[in-house]
Amino acid sequence: MPDTSSIKISTELKYRLNSLKVHPRETYNDLIGRLVSHAHECQQPTYIPLIYVRVRGEIRELADPIELCVEVEGGEYILYNHAYRLLAVAPDLREGLIEITAEFETNWKDFVERDESDLTDGALQFRRKLLSLFHGES
Question: Which of 68, 106, 111, 112 shows the shortest CA–CA distance to 90?
Answer without folding.
Answer: 68
